[in-house]
Design goal:
By secondary structure, the chain is mainly alpha-helical. It has 5 helices and no strands.
Length: 134
């Protein structure tokens, strides 16, 4: 059953997405077999700060749009949720064992909370995004 806000997506786009999902499976198998277990990374600080800049910008944009009752707040909330999940994933998978991993897990819990809040906003009806705004 379609809800009142669910868009009707073009069939070609859905077919393309499905085909992409299928093609990615052998690609992932190839990556697992071919990629080295570790690598030296350049611009490490820039990569991590960049994720946090994206997350902060997404939070700010969602807040501003939400207070303005702009329906685009759903889009920025969705994007921010995705960035938060990616940040948590990379925090955990790149952390060294021990204290660094514990810190990464703590950060991941906070980022998961942010992602959940953003998903809630993205899926909420328009009036629930900012009920108390005047």
């Amino acid at each position: 059953m379609r809800t009142k806000w669910a868009p009707v997506l073009p069939k070609w786009a859905l077919v393309l997405l499905g085909a992409t999902a299928v093609v990615l499976v052998p690609w992932m198998v190839l990556l697992v077999r071919m990629l080295p277990a570790s690598a030296e990374v350049r611009n490490w600080q820039m990569a991590w700060v960049g994720l946090d800049v994206l997350m902060a910008a997404g939070c700010a944009a969602t807040a501003v749009l939400g207070f303005r009752r702009n329906p685009h707040a759903r889009l920025t909330a969705s994007a921010t949720a995705a960035v938060a999940v990616l940040d948590a994933w990379f925090d955990i998978t790149t952390a060294q064992p021990g204290a660094a991993l514990v810190q990464a897990l703590a950060c991941a819990v906070a980022e998961a909370g942010l992602a959940c809040a953003c998903v809630y906003l993205a899926l909420s009806e328009g009036h629930a995004v900012c009920e108390g705004a005047g």
